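Assemble and predict.
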Amino acid sequence: MMRKFFAQRRKKKTSPFSQHMQQRQTPELTLSPNLADNLELFRTLLGNPHDLLIRTFLIGNTNHTCAVIALDGLADSDMLHNQVLGHIQLMISTSEKSVPPEPDEIIQLLFEEVLSVVEIKKETSLTAALDCILSGDTALFVDGSSELILIDSKGWKTRGIEEPVSEGLVRGPRDGFTESIRDNTVRIRRRVKDPNLRFESSWVGTRSKTELIIAYIDDIVDHEMLDEVRRRIATIDIDEVEESGFIEQWIEDDFLSPFPQAHNTERPDKVSASLFQGRVAILLDGTPMVLILPVTIGLLLHSPEDYYERWIVGTLTRLLRYLAAFFAVFSPSLYIALVTFHPGLIPSDLAFSIAATRDGVPFPAFIESLMMITTMELLQEAGLRLPKPIGQTVGIVGGLVIGDAAVSAGIVSPVMVIVVALTAISSFAIPSFQLAIAFRMIRFFAMFGAAIFGIYGVILSLIAIMIHLSNLTSIGYPYLAPLAPQMPRDWKDLILRAPVTFLKERPQALHPEDEIRMRTGDSK
Amino acid sequence: MSAQTLSEKMISKNHMGINIASVTVGVGILTFPRALAKATSGFDGWISVVISGLVALLIGWLLAKLAARFPRQTFFDYTAIIASKPVAYALTLLVCLYTMLFVSFEIRAIGNIAKQYLFYSTPVEMITLSFLLIVQYAVAGSRIAMLRLNLLFLPVVLVVIFFVLVFTTQLLEIENIRPYFSSSWKSLLEGSKAVGLSYSGFEIILFYTMLMRNPEEGPKAMLLGLFIPVSLYVTIYIFVIGVFSAEVAKNLTYPTIDLAKEVEIPGGFFERVESMFFTIWIMTIFNTCVMWLDITILNLTSMFRKVKKMVWILALSPIIYFVAMLPQNLVDFFAFADAITYFGMIIVYLCPICLLLIAIMRGVKGHE
């Protein structure tokens, strides 16, 4: 029902890409030939800000007034000095060329000969010029002309490239994305020197006008999927977009699902590998988090390191991770089920010792687990927000509270502490933070199942989760591919990680246009 | 959603085979050695398993042929083409009744077995109800996603049964399986009839062929789909008789689960393996159950196109639940099961074969 509602909502908002680009807030304003009028207009439109730089000057030895407008800090002032103002003043006064009398001819001369800047264009629309100035360009006016020249002078301070904090690796490149979208596209280009790499630029947010880039490799990506991504992005209609999370939530298939339907990463190597697999990446200005679409369960449980290490290591690590996924979701519920309903399933010696340790505990196993798991969630959340030095204190305090004091106070049993520790460690072993969060939510669901129906409840909750996952799609692609639907060819890169020489094809699950990765016959 | 191409909403030959295997392997496999041991009084029961498997294959092949004649058409549609609309309405309604009763049977079976092996004080009503709710949830989603669950669960179940068999190998006693070939033909046929119930399910090909990419591959899918249960049943029967002897097997309610009971995992990590075994087994019973309910809904919506799927699910569930709660004890319950099967033999085997004959005689064919 909700899905249908959502589909209708989408349909209504559907608009082609080009149309979307024209949805501007302010009505279209054109330039007047009078310089003073233009400058005044700019001042009023921007509310006469203190960081607006306006410099008027006379060109050469003539009486033609010119002006440059830029925003302080956004535009590179060195460049304005040397390549723009310097050139205009110097070249025109020293060269033998006489300055033509007509303002439009002056513009032409500046455009073609004087300005030594790579990215430069002429513009007649004032609104468009305003947008460009707001994103760091410089506008050059000549009195009497109703055209202006826009000079690309973007140059503000950005953060340096650092190692991604949220996705550490032992082996692998150390660079991460930054907040500047230009730096990010560079990081991808550096890795993908394929002429078919495409960056489709547009903007989202009617007020924030945040730049958004859809990256893909033209002859690998499934174009049907690409069109769907474009269509969904075109429906985005909000005034401001700070982070790629907005995009993710807007274009996801099922907003009721606890599972992430777009993968975010700050690792350029992960993005480039995904592009080569036939996925699409969405970069947004102002955030280092790049979205990868579509998501399959494999993408979330695999780490780039699986491929960098030798295949035996990669395979075993993956097995470990799948096991961790199971423990992260089901270990507290299995504890509840076994202790409360089926002590007979535990070997008798162990059952006796568990019973003995639970002797003084006043709560049923379910309440006990609920308390401990909630405490662990609290600790995790608290540790996340605190500055690093204090974070360690939380770890120690939490560790002591969970580990020792709770047991000696007789609130929980020692076995429970082991279960909680196992659960926590397992969920940290999941490479995708978003998936780990999903598991944390499902864990409670399974615990309720176990509290009501014991191990029968656990298997029912497992079945329910599988039903959900089987129904779930990401940009229309089945989430559980290549398991269901079955694509046996992809299985060598699912739980197994076959030696790289065996991975001759791209994942079938993504319908790549070009399926073959290795063309030069047998690799051996 | 629109990015998903049509071909991906269809199912392949192998997938269809796995669907058939999943729907066949259900509750029947847990009980059939008892009925078989009773009928044939000995190891020779495996011949009965094969005989009834071959009969099932023959029927299944005919059903697949029928469905393949009318690609992309529902059971109701092609019955209407072959034998007029009123007949189609009557037959499809009967089929719905049959499949619905089957759902009742399966959910009650879950309740009974869970009660016996997992719970002692939880009422059967609650166990059954919770299972029915999960089944509803699965059917409420998309049909292809529901069928994909078979791909996920069947391998797990097969691996578990494989482990059980491996660990019981040491308990096999050759004495138990002697004498060979001592049963009369009559008792073997009697046995075949007894195993018959455990094979019911392959008739889903009548309804799901319309989802197949290449409907003409239906007969091959049937071969794969029945090969898995036949080989599984033969192996399990041999093991049950080998471990317990025919005399004991006759008196066990769920001999296959009791086989798991005998398993001792080295290291003593688990005790009472039969509980774990049954817990995993719920997955395949779930698959069977979901497909039956889905077919009921599929047939109903093909007849009454205006009524939404969700309405049928919500309307049918109380009836299914009520019927499931009717049998008062195990004797009633198994009598109920037998009654459904005989009813089903006429409705989904005999009638469709007649339809096929009529279709061939009249030369009716579907169009792509």
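Chain A touches chain B through 41 residues (CB under 8 Å).
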